[in-house]
Structures are given as C-alpha cells and as structure tokens.
Amino acid sequence: MIRPYEAADWDGVGRVCVQTGDSGDDATGIYANDDLLPAIYAYPYVVFEPDLAWVVVADSAEDDANDGDVVGYILGTSNVTAFVEWWAGDWAPKFEELLPVDDGWTGADLEVRSRGEHPEDQLNEIVRKYPGEFHIDLLPAAQGHGLGRTLIAVFAAALRDRGVRRLSIGVGAANQDALAFYRHLGFEELGREAAESGEVLAYRMGAQVTDL
Question: pTM of the full predicted structure?
C-alpha cells in the first residue's frame, strides 16, 4: 500500500535507505554510523517537504511477517536551490547531532559525510533547469510489482500541481538495473560525475514531469 509519509515513518524510511544504500544492496554496517546515508539522502527531505514524501507499507495479505512496516518510499524536493539554502541554515545542526565523529570513522566514512557538510555542491546548471529532485528506494520484497513507476507518477503529479516542469535523480553508475529502469521511463542523461581517473561514478537523469 502507498500512502503519504507520516512522522512515525522516520525510522522505517531510514532503515530502507540503509538497506538499499549500496547501489541497491544492503549497506548496514558499511559506514561508522548507519544514520550517515539517511542523514544525507532521506531525513532532510521529509523534514523540508514532508508533503512530497510517500511510503510503501507492507500489506498483511502479501507479507504477514512485516505487516505495517515501511518497505519503500519516494521523497524529494520541488526546488533544489531552496532546499540547499534551508539545509545550510536549518538541517546542518541536526546533521551534526546525528553524526558525531570519533576515532572509529575512516577516510571513506568522512568522504561520504562531506557531502552533507557541503550541500552547496548540489547546485549547478542542471538543477536550475530541473528544479525537482527525488529519491526512491524499495526493498526486494516490494520490487517487481510496478510500485516504482507508480511512486514516480505520484511524485510527478505533485510537482505539476506546484508548477514544476522538470525533475531529476542521481543514479550510481554501478546500479545498472536502476539506470535501465529510468531510461525505460523516458529519463535522459543530463550529466555525469567522474573520478579523477575518468571512471564514471554516477549519472544525473532527468525528465519532463508531463511525461511521467
């Protein structure tokens, strides 16, 4: 079942974010703090624009063991620029509270954490042309039922109601299934993030909301 996000879904959203955080696979225990990924890719969005978040809840008819649990979500923002400005002033203190650094943090942990320390890095010409942005994650049990397409359609409709015409999403280069899914829906490549070696790390995919 898909329904609007509620404050009580906070932990469930965080759990799904972590369990899909390794290019679709479970990232639990990979980083020094399991709140690291949600504090960047999930929690700030449901605080900033909770009315642009929907969750998928397990149905007892399909999954008795997880009845009522959050097993997927879509969340995002209608204006990346405004979101980044809010993050710098309002989310930054909560980010620090959620992620205290100690000697157990590795260089890889700190590198990911730096994305939350510099929200301004999200700003570029692409997000100015494609001001809507979303993140979508589904646990394996919720996949293969058309929920991803439905969630994106719901999100796109909400953006249309706000007068937003374009949206985008970042997709890790390793997540080939996700890239194929977005291309099938009509998303086009807008840009690439590459390492110094030239290896492509992620793609920015975008679409017109009227096409979704």
Answer: 0.93
